[in-house]
Design brief:
Length: about 800
């Protein structure tokens, strides 16, 4: 007969031995899914905290069930013992039954039960059969499973568990912002348990953020790292994480063996993989960041992996939570956590296989860079900008291979040259471009046409940043080599950059002849991008010398060139410089309209240099129109963005004069105190906010009149005093993002939905928290809900 012990017990959930950190959104989603579905499977990479989350969710649901049972399958190796293990855990024994499944069906049919099946990945088929039979037999049964991959049965809801949020790299942090990340909170709590008094301070906050980033936000890795803080400082631990699998040991002695060290945990997943999946997974470690399907097919196939099998293998690795799927600009990409990548790299076949994969990886991204250069001047500029931005880590790795591998430096120099226009100049990545060109030029010193062109490209980047002396030296070397070799393309390029150098210096009498020659030479060699730059700069120089009619003709020729080829990056610059020309001629309305058109294009392209320049131009025009407070904010924001991209205000002599003249006028009309006040306000605005203000969308003093409010805003009132009838203290973009936060979306999800960068979203969230006086996203959600309901938070 069936033992009656079941009716006297309500389950076997263990008590928490440590605090549970974060995961509020995930717990809420599990509650929702369990109310709508009878089988919910939590999937995710090993160590991400699936078991702990399932236990917390089950504990919160305890009162809704007659019994809540945890069945740990991690030590069960025989699929035939799955049902027996469940029955034994629940205390179900029926000597009359042919199999334990029959007894379980009878017991569960009369109860409202929540069954937690933990660690199903190595017994997936057996767990699927068990779950299917029990759910059919017991209408009040709910199953919460944890596995690296879903069970794959009808009615199952899969919930992907991601690592804990950690700070993004290169982002300014303070103690308050760090506390918003669950990964940091977990490290702090676990570290304090082994090192009483541990806390995040100004001295260690950067190291704490970096540690959590390097550990990918994986809870197990963070907990193992916290144990090491008994003997090491946070900074020392970060430095030693290069060998994380050796270092991160010493977990709880009561944990199953595979969870006591990070290496054992990942190796558990590795050993469960079929041979083809193992092979592809290890080869994928050659990618330093995310990648797409085409890249995998080109780099990782052969020797046992057929091209036609790649998609199915990737899908299998995704299902086992060994890869992450991401969407960027509507395209699907894949990513491996750093922790897993390091493990896989150690499983590659040896130096020969690694070198072969790196060469194929380099060849893939060399071809990509060449295509970007060939197709840059045309209708696909935005697509190329986005793609090259996504592939930045892969491009860097490819160039790094060229520097490390003997005999590959010249190929690396070609790659750096290809990327100059579509990547470094277009994105204002001047320091990045100089870094790679300088290193490649040093590694490939042969006096070739390639070197002449690369020296000239380097000179253009250097001059753009205002380093005139260094730029002229590079240009002189390039010109001498180009003349010696007689290369028309290199000669045309040096004529153009020489004209730019004189133009920036304000010597227009010398610049104009050089630029006229550049126009002829660039047109002759078919370099349309160089031709456009020459036309724009020549038009500006001719205008400065007083020939306004010819300048207008040249600007219109430049616009016609961009229209003929559906080009938009250079078109933005034509509008920008043409606006300056119109402003100088007293045509302020046309100048304003044209600079705003340029700003729209610059924003769409993400061209930070163009954005900064247009904000300056708009400031000059607005100052002439008497909108001094507005002009001061625009000018301050322009300087702030310029500093971020490494621009020197005095780079262009005439622009520097306009800048100083505008500052003098603003100081005269606003006074030092008023100018300083508006400067601070401009510096505090995000790029999106200042663009909205420049376009007349964001009006602090009322619609269309952003210049009338010159007094500083007082402190924002607490949210409890804000009703739906009162105006929101947030900008339109901030309100959009607050609404997304209220819907429970992550920063990455918001960025994808609004088609902006994740870093931009993070900046907006920080501004929202500051303006509302909040410390958490939950408070933002409550504030939004209260305004929508017309009440008070």
């Amino acid at each position: 007969m069936v033992a009656g012990a079941v009716t006297r017990q309500v389950g076997n959930l263990p008590a928490d031995l440590t605090s549970f950190v974060g995961r509020r959104r995930e717990l809420a989603e599990i509650r929702r899914l369990l109310s709508a579905s009878r089988l919910v499977t939590l999937t995710g990479v090993g160590g991400v905290g699936k078991t702990r989350l399932a236990l917390r969710a089950a504990a919160e649901q305890r009162r809704a069930f007659d019994g809540v049972w945890l069945v740990d399958l991690s030590t069960v190796g025989d699929p035939g013992l799955v049902a027996e293990t469940v029955a034994a855990t629940m205390g179900v024994r029926d000597e009359a039954a042919d199999c334990p499944l029959d007894a379980l069906e009878r017991v569960l049919a009369s109860q409202r039960t929540l069954l937690v099946l933990d660690n199903c990945e190595h017994l997936r088929d057996a767990c699927a059969v068990l779950a299917d039979r029990l759910l059919r037999a017991a209408p009040e049964l709910r199953i919460l499973a944890t596995s690296r991959q879903s069970l794959g049965i009808t009615g199952e809801h899969r919930m992907k568990i991601s690592p804990l949020p950690v700070p993004e790299p290169d982002r300014p942090l303070d103690r308050r912002s760090l506390e918003l990340y669950d990964g940091v909170s977990l490290l702090t709590e676990r570290a304090a348990a082994v090192l009483p008094g541990f806390t995040v301070t100004e001295d260690n906050q950067a190291a704490v953020a970096e540690l959590c980033r390097q550990l990918d936000g994986i809870p197990l890795a963070i907990e193992l790292a916290a144990v090491r803080l008994r003997a090491l400082s946070v900074k020392a631990l970060v430095e030693r994480l290069r060998d994380r699998y050796r270092l991160l040991t010493g977990g709880s002695s009561t944990a199953v063996p595979r969870q006591q060290t990070l290496h054992a945990l990942v190796d558990w997943s590795f050993q469960l993989l079929p041979a083809a999946e193992r092979t592809l997974w290890t080869r994928l470690s050659i990618f330093p960041s995310h990648f797409d399907l085409d890249a995998v097919e080109e780099v990782c196939t052969g020797d046992g992996i057929e091209r036609d099998d790649v998609l199915d293998l990737l899908d299998a690795l995704l299902d086992k939570s060994l890869l992450l799927r991401e969407e960027h600009w509507g395209s699907v990409r894949y990513r491996m956590l750093d922790t897993l990548r390091e493990f896989c790299r150690k499983r590659l076949g040896g130096p020969a296989e690694r070198r072969s994969l790196r060469r194929r990886h380099r060849d893939r991204y060399l071809l990509l860079a060449r295509r970007a250069a060939d197709e840059w001047f045309g209708p696909d500029q935005l697509a190329w900008l986005r793609l090259l931005d996504l592939e930045q880590a892969n491009l860097r790795a490819a160039m790094d291979f060229c520097l490390q591998e003997p005999g590959e430096a010249e190929t690396g120099l070609w790659m750096a040259l290809y990327l100059t226009d579509p990547c470094w100049l277009a994105n204002a990545y001047y320091n990045e471009g100089r870094h790679w060109l300088d290193r490649m030029l040093w590694a490939a010193p042969a006096p070739t046409v390639l070197r002449a062109r690369a020296l000239c490209a380097d000179a253009e980047l250097v001059l753009t940043q205002g380093d005139t002396a260094r730029g002229r030296l590079l240009l002189a070397e390039s010109r001498a080599l180009a003349e010696r070799l007689g290369d028309p393309e290199a000669l045309a390029q040096t004529s153009l950059v020489a004209g730019l150098a004189e133009h920036y210096a304000g010597d227009y009498a010398r610049a104009v002849p050089l630029l006229e020659r550049a126009v002829e030479e660039e047109e002759a060699v078919g370099n349309l991008s160089g031709l456009l730059i020459a036309l724009i700069t020549l038009a500006a120089g001719v205008g400065y010398l007083g020939d306004r009619a010819r300048a207008t003709e040249l600007f219109e020729r430049a616009l016609a060139l961009t229209e003929a080829h559906s080009e938009c990056s250079g078109r933005a610059w034509v509008f920008t410089i043409f606006a300056v020309h119109l402003w100088q001629g007293g045509e302020n309305d046309r100048a304003l309209a044209m600079a705003r058109e340029a700003l729209l294009l610059g924003r769409e392209l993400g061209d930070r240099m163009n954005i900064a320049t247009n904000l300056s131009v708009l400031a000059w025009v607005q100052a002439c129109e008497g909108r001094h407070a507005h002009a001061a904010r625009l000018l301050a924001a322009s300087e702030e963005i310029g500093r971020r991209v490494g621009l020197v205000p005095s780079r262009d002599k005439r622009f520097a004069e306009f800048h100083e003249r505008c500052l003098t006028e603003l100081r005269t009309n606003l006074g030092d105190r008023g100018l300083n006040r508006e400067t601070r306000r401009g510096q505090r605005l995000t790029t999106d906010e200042i663009i909205e203000e420049a376009l007349g969308v964001r009006a602090e003093g009322g619609p269309g009149r952003p210049d009338e409010t010159t007094a500083e805003a007082g402190p924002t009132r607490p949210a409890t005093a804000v009703s739906a009838a009162e105006p929101s203290p947030l900008t339109r973009r901030e309100r959009e993002i607050a609404d997304q936060v209220a819907q429970g979306r992550s920063n990455k999800e918001i960025a994808s939905a609004l088609v902006i960068s994740q870093r931009t979203v993070e900046g907006h969230v920080e501004h929202i928290l500051d303006k509302l006086g909040f410390a958490s996203r939950a408070q933002i959600a409550a504030w939004v809900a209260a305004r929508e309901a017309g009440g008070r938070p």
